[in-house]
Amino acid sequence: PQLTSRTKGDWAALYRRFLKSPNFVGWYNARHAEVSTKLTLLHLESLSEARIECWMEGKAEVELVDMVLRIRGKLSEGERSGLPISDLVKERLQAHVSRIVSTLPDDLQSVIASKS
Question: Which pTM does this prediction carry?
Answer without folding.
Answer: 0.77
